[in-house]
Specification:
binds zinc ion, mainly alpha, globular, about 220 residues, two-stranded parallel ribbon, 8 helices, Rossmann fold
């Protein structure tokens, strides 16, 4: 299970822990702007009783994203038409991030003989990243079946994306229902003392809690 320490991956981990006898979380220290989400991931994994691996893979070596390059500012959320509709992908997109992370998860899953890879990706209330879409996940699963030993042996890895078509409000509701430690999560793209409230991640999170009628426990 790829765990970032944000809302979606935390709720997805609660599902994985419910459904599977043993879960290993993988958190990537990829040179992101701040350490807050890495700390959140550590607490979330511990809170849900899952093993945590932290992998250092520095995507800031080449940058190209507001999340991995200090020279590119994190944009404020705008009430523009949905990214999916406009086709505009914001500068917080990290080049090939999920392509790389999925490959990493495959390596760890295969070495540990895990049957499934859980991903908290969402393609509804999201920032329009192409590597969060169902068609990407389906294609990657196919590539993994062809490229992994267990795939050619007839035991392909099962990619599970239980939140991919959920609204943010549904994700919040599911998190509350499953007792996910939402109070430990960190979504903000900026790593200040408190969430900034104005970036895309903060805006989507606030919308989700508001529509679910739940007070965000991380803001108390
Ligand atoms: Zn923010």
């Amino acid at each position: 299970m790829l765990l970032s320490g944000g809302l979606d991956s935390t709720v997805c981990l609660a599902i994985a822990v419910r459904d599977s006898p043993a879960v290993t979380t993988v958190t990537v220290d990829y040179g992101q702007r701040h350490r807050r989400e890495l700390e959140a991931a550590r607490r979330v994994a511990a809170g849900l009783g899952a093993e945590q691996l932290v992998v250092n893979l520095d995507l800031s070596a080449w940058g190209g994203s507001a999340l991995t390059d200090d020279a590119i500012a994190v944009p404020n959320h705008t009430a523009a038409p949905s990214y999916a509709a406009s086709g505009a992908i914001p500068t917080t997109y990290v080049p090939a991030r999920n392509l790389i992370f999925c490959a990493l998860a495959c390596g760890i899953a295969e070495s540990r003989d895990c049957d499934s890879v859980y991903l908290g990706v969402n393609a509804l209330d999201y920032s329009g990243y192409p590597d969060c879409r169902p068609e990407f996940i389906a294609a990657f699963q196919e590539a993994a079946a062809l490229g992994l030993k267990r795939g050619v042996e007839g035991r392909p890895l099962d990619f599970r994306t239980p939140l991919i078509r959920h609204t943010k409000a549904q994700i919040v509701g599911l998190g509350v229902e499953l007792g996910a430690p939402l109070e430990l999560t960190w979504s903000c793209y900026r790593g200040e003392m408190e969430p900034c409230g104005s970036c895309d991640a903060c805006a989507l999170r606030a919308k989700g809690f508001s529509e679910a009628g739940v007070t965000d426990p991380a803001l108390r």
